[in-house]
Amino acid sequence: MINVKQEIINSIKEITVGHDIQEFIEEVLLSDLGIDSIKYVELLVSIEEKCDVEFDESDLGADALKSLGDLINLVNKTLEQKVS
Amino acid sequence: MSLWNELERSFHNHSHQKAALSPNGRWVTYGELMNTVNEKVKILREIIPSGSKVAVIDTHPFLEMVHIVSLIRLNVTIIPLATKYGEDRCNQIITHIKPDFIVSSAEQHIPSKVFVQCIEMGTRVTTDENTILDLEIQLDEESKRNGETLPSSFIMYTSGSTGDPKGAIITYQNILSNIQDIISYFKVTAQDHILINRSLSHASVLTGELLYGLISGARISYYTETFIPRRLLRFIEEKEITVFCSTPTVFNQIALDKSKYQCPSLKRVALMGEYLHKQVALQVRKRFPHVEFYMNYGQTEASPRITYLPSRYFTAKESCIGIPLPSIEIDIVDEFGASVDLGAKGELIVKGPNVFKGYWNLPKLTVHKLKNGWLYTGDIVSLGEDGYIYIFGRRDDMIIRAGMNIYPKEIEDVLLEDHRVREVVVFGTKEPKYGQKINVHVIPDEAVELTVSNIMGICRKELASYQYPDEIEIVNEIPKNLAGKIMRKQVVYHN
């Protein structure tokens, strides 16, 4: 069983610089982590690889994916659909 | 023929064909677009004298398109603004250019800080409903002094080396000549469907996508959602897009998407705005083998296209920017302005009907960039034995990341304002994912503690997101020359 939150944090750390661990609360906005539109796409690709999922494009509206918590929920939802 | 004549001819010839997708998802025909523009022109003509400087801002590129085409009819100087890069950036531009008017479809479509700045600058706000502020037109000091009126033109703002934006004056004729050159190698017809997903405030989009598309009678769809490759691919496939222009960074991200979309309708893709790494060219070709790919090179000051690489060489000629467009003359010169020997490296300079008139209110910078009608591009190139131009890097220290120009000083000045930073140097290095990446080296003040996280915090607070560093290092020393000047690492695209 993968630790979804940790995998996402690892992805964020790989593509951005300068984060303290206490920044990674679920409410933190991706934009506040210094993720611009280019890195946002990189992050989604990285999470898909690390968590071995493929997001449905209808779930990928950026307006719905603003925080770390939004990403965790998306991965969990996609994993559940994969199992079922 | 003028730019307006060309647009009018196309609107008339294609009046029953679809022109552009409106914000509410309805196709507007060229005939309807013509009527909308005519109505708008009738109202604006009463308010805006020809020769005025008019800023344009709106919430949707379709609305911006209607404003821009109407203003071309009025022969005014047009300054397209983009909220995408922040309200502060818009305000820097407004402070610099002091527009006589700002045009938007509604007052609430103008960000509040920008609205306030316009009032302070004496800029009249004009919307579809009414002219909100009936202030006297205040010509700025320079115009009064010189009695200068601008030719019918656009002023396109880009990053300046001092951190302040600079506005390149490109005339309608500059743009029209560039479109006529583009037609010679990149065909767009009334059967094409163009996807625009970048801001109209970029010369590349204005000339090579919007105005070229309208003159050709093509259909134009705007993609205004946040960029997510999988959703964009679906849009391309569902709408049967045939032509798309983008940066290597963005198109590479599209090509790397895991979905199955193959976009069979897509015929021609032009990439531009940054260095194209070979692995990126191979990747995009592999993903879309049926598409003709063109690499373009240009800069805003050239309205903007200068050279193109024919599609058949897209993956074959690495670091090649191709051959000049038909009406453009080129030379490659040394630091004294003398032509270099065949095959030697030097600065690319260009001459032609597309070369800009200068920067707004920055005479010193204009003299530096424009000498005897030659535009000094600042790019170091050589002419290969095959007759094609190869690019090596910049003469100055400008970083080109994901199609955006970034001057190190913009970032260094922000960091030096923080008392915890003693010295800083910012430089670009090779990065296939973005063309180049932004590196920051900092020496902290000895008396305080400063972490990488603190440095990123300053950047996030003070800079636009496209200027955020990709790498930050705390260092003990920053190399300097004998005169004590910081030596930036050589910016190279390839070795």
Automatic annotation (TrEMBL), chain A:
<dbReference type="InterPro" id="IPR036736">
    <property type="entry name" value="ACP-like_sf"/>
</dbReference>
<dbReference type="Pfam" id="PF00550">
    <property type="entry name" value="PP-binding"/>
</dbReference>
<feature type="domain" description="Carrier">
    <location>
        <begin position="1"/>
        <end position="79"/>
    </location>
</feature>
<protein>
    <submittedName>
        <fullName>Acyl carrier protein</fullName>
    </submittedName>
</protein>
<dbReference type="InterPro" id="IPR009081">
    <property type="entry name" value="PP-bd_ACP"/>
</dbReference>
From TrEMBL, chain B:
<dbReference type="InterPro" id="IPR020845">
    <property type="entry name" value="AMP-binding_CS"/>
</dbReference>
<dbReference type="InterPro" id="IPR042099">
    <property type="entry name" value="ANL_N_sf"/>
</dbReference>
<dbReference type="Pfam" id="PF00501">
    <property type="entry name" value="AMP-binding"/>
</dbReference>
<dbReference type="InterPro" id="IPR050237">
    <property type="entry name" value="ATP-dep_AMP-bd_enzyme"/>
</dbReference>
<feature type="domain" description="AMP-dependent synthetase/ligase">
    <location>
        <begin position="9"/>
        <end position="360"/>
    </location>
</feature>
<dbReference type="Pfam" id="PF13193">
    <property type="entry name" value="AMP-binding_C"/>
</dbReference>
<dbReference type="InterPro" id="IPR045851">
    <property type="entry name" value="AMP-bd_C_sf"/>
</dbReference>
<feature type="domain" description="AMP-binding enzyme C-terminal">
    <location>
        <begin position="410"/>
        <end position="485"/>
    </location>
</feature>
<dbReference type="InterPro" id="IPR025110">
    <property type="entry name" value="AMP-bd_C"/>
</dbReference>
<protein>
    <submittedName>
        <fullName>Class I adenylate-forming enzyme family protein</fullName>
    </submittedName>
</protein>
<dbReference type="InterPro" id="IPR000873">
    <property type="entry name" value="AMP-dep_synth/lig_dom"/>
</dbReference>
